Prior knowledge:
Multidrug-efflux Transporter Regulator, Chain: A, Domain 2; 7 helices; Multidrug-efflux Transporter 1 Regulator Bmrr, Chain A; 2 domains; about 25% strand
Amino acid sequence: MLTIGEFSKICKVSTRTLRHYDSIDLIKPKKINEENGYRYYEIDQVKEMIMIERLKKYQFSLDEINEILHSNTNILLDKIIVQEKKIKNIISQYREIEKQMKDDILRLKKGFDIMTFVEDINIKLIDTEDINILSSRQLMSTDEYGKYIGKLFEIISKNNLTVIGPPMSIYYGSEFNEDENDTEIAVPIKENFKGTKLLPGGLYATATIKGAYSNLSFGYGKLIEWINKNNYKITGEYYEKYLKGPMDGGEIITEIYIPLIK
């Protein structure tokens, strides 16, 4: 058998961490000496420890790892598939941040203000037609938008429906909550289908925002400023159209729509 120190050296995990794993029943020593409390591990537990460390690298929580290791069913494949999608989304976000930083560095080297793009946001007043949408509304975090858009496209593919516009999100509620925002994810489709509805057309103030989704706040700010300045009144929920996303390559392009009356 291996002492906790030997097991620690082999697995490259501190003894403090091993004691914590023991306390949460993640991986327990095979034997504890009743007289001195020394912990001992079997050599075959090295494989289990390597598995734990691999799942940690995949950004699973210790609770999730515990569930995977001690579940009576084989849930590992499903868990890793879901986690892979999360990691891809995080990578995409960081790539967009990296691109934005490079653009800002270039602007600063040229002596420009990195916020000059705000002045380039143009506000348009348009009349829109009703849009037939397949949608799903629930409380969700901002990180879950892609997941719910993906589920709608699964329904579209399974039922051979015809997409006639980019994905959208419609926002409800009086305030923003990053973790539980009342949001309706939608995809415009041609057919009347179970779960479809009409998004009413009408008069909208709209702005096109290029770059990271964090830039949308400036677009909303300019829209609200323009609406108040021109004596319009907001009549309903805002929505966004995602013309180009992080996975499409190139610059992200988003349109914001706010319904109005004079």
